[in-house]
Amino acid sequence: MASARDYTIGLIGRSWAMVFASGGYNVKLYDNQPGLALNALNEIKKQMMELQEAGMLRGQLSATQQLALLSSHEDLQQALQGAFFVQECVFENLEVKQKLFRDVERLVGQDVILSSSTSCLVPSAVFSSVQNQSRCLVSHPVNPPYDVKLVELVPHPDTAAAVMDNAHILMTEVGQVPVRLRKEIDGFALNRVQAAIIAESWRLVQDGIISVQDIDLVMSEGLGMRYAFIGPMETIHLNAPEGLGDYMKRYGEGIQRLLRSFGPVPDFFAEDAETVVSEMCKLIPNDERHLSARRKRRDRFLMGLARLKKDH
Fold first, then answer.
1. 139-157 burial: b if 16+ Cβ within 10 Å, else e
2. For residue 37, which of 61, 72, 274, 296 is within the disulfide window of CB 3.0 to 4.6 Å?
3. Domain 11-180 has CATH 3.90.226.10
4. What's the rounded mean pLDDT across residues 239-263?
5. E strand or H helix at 72, and its extent?
6. Whole-angstrom Cα distance, residue 59 to residue 262?
7. Looking at residue 127, what DSSP letter applies?
8. What is an annotated GO biological process for this record, any one (predicted)?
9. CB 184 within 8 A of CB 124
10. In the predicted structure, residue 2 carries a pLDDT above the cut 70
């Protein structure tokens, strides 16, 4: 496990460590700044105990047993000893990621899989300095990964099929829900779909069609209710008497008409964009106290939804 240079091991790094430990794997956390890996380990211990008390600890092992599989390190070579899978969790800085993988590659064998948690950098860029690119891929989690199990597996153009297979097996084994992209694309799949939703939601608010509060309700009390269990393709497949083809016969022209009516990509930095930001901040002030409380609320709801999905 690797964290950001000059940054503490953050939520993504801690979550990955907890996910792999829940599957019974030994996990070594590394940070090049003294004491930060140990701090992350202490935070994980606290979180695991809380999860166990709430009945939401993942895996078959107790919190104590999982914690015994975790260790913190300040020496990269020591952290990489015995590794077969390296999950990098550095912040979104291409040069830092490239340097880290150059350092890692010098210290591991040719069969060790190198994986990045990047959410917006394509594998061909992240691994451009790696000599053996056939063992490289992006494993893009959803925040927070411990509660939201999807992980996008994105290959480098030269990634070996066996590497994708092994990563898929590992992610499934530790309880994640991996999806494979057949080739790299900017934003991967999740962020491209999310960007489309953000853009149209922003336009509807900015054009005075609907409020920030109500557009969020469109998703949370409407589309999101279905999408928590089935995706958009299955949704429309089930919404017509004879399935997907029938749906498009009935509604395809209307969908095309709507798509043609969409405006250009919104300017999120224009002067009138401030009205959208202001409306959001009136609902939830953007100070640490209010945002932290809403994040905790979000995570609590996600834990409850995860429990519901597990039971069904």
1. bbbbebbbbbbebbbbbbe
2. 72
3. no
4. 95
5. strand 70-73
6. 45
7. T
8. fatty acid metabolic process
9. yes
10. no
Counting residues of the chain whose pLDDT is more than 70, the rounded percentage is 97
Instruction: Locate 168 and state its tokens.
Output: 């898929």
Q: Is the pLDDT of residue 107 over 80?
A: yes
Contact indicator for 212, 280 with CB cutoff of 8 Å: yes
What CATH homologous superfamily does 190-229+267-311 map to?
A: N-(1-d-carboxylethyl)-l-norvaline Dehydrogenase; domain 2 (1.10.1040.10)
Give the per-residue pLDDT at 7: 38
Distance CA 226, CA 169 (A): 28
Instruction: Kindly provide the b/e burial profile for residues 233-271, where b requires at least 16 CB atoms within 10 angstroms of the residue's own CB.
Output: eeebbeeeeeeeeebeeeeeeeeeeeeeeeeeebeeeee
For residues 124 and 115, is the Cβ–Cβ distance under 8 A? Answer: no
Cis ω for the linkage preceding 144 (within 30 of 0): yes
What residues are paired with 177 via a beta bridge?
150
The closest of 20, 13, 15, 61 to 170, measured between CA atoms, is: 20
Q: How many CB atoms lie within 10 A of CB 18?
A: 25
Lookup: tokens for 118: 């990047």
As annotated, the residues of the chain forming the CATH 3.40.50.720 domain(s) are 11-180
Average pLDDT value over all residues in the chain: 93
Residue given tokens 């939703």 in the structure block = 197
Q: Which amino acid is at 229?
A: F
pTM, to two decimals: 0.90
Neighbours of 55 (CB within 10 A): 8
Give the span between the Cα atoms of 284 and 126, in whole angstroms.
36
SS (H, E, C) 6-60: CCCCCHHHHHHHHHHHHCCCCEEEECCCCCHHHHHHHHHHHHHHHHHHCCCCCCC
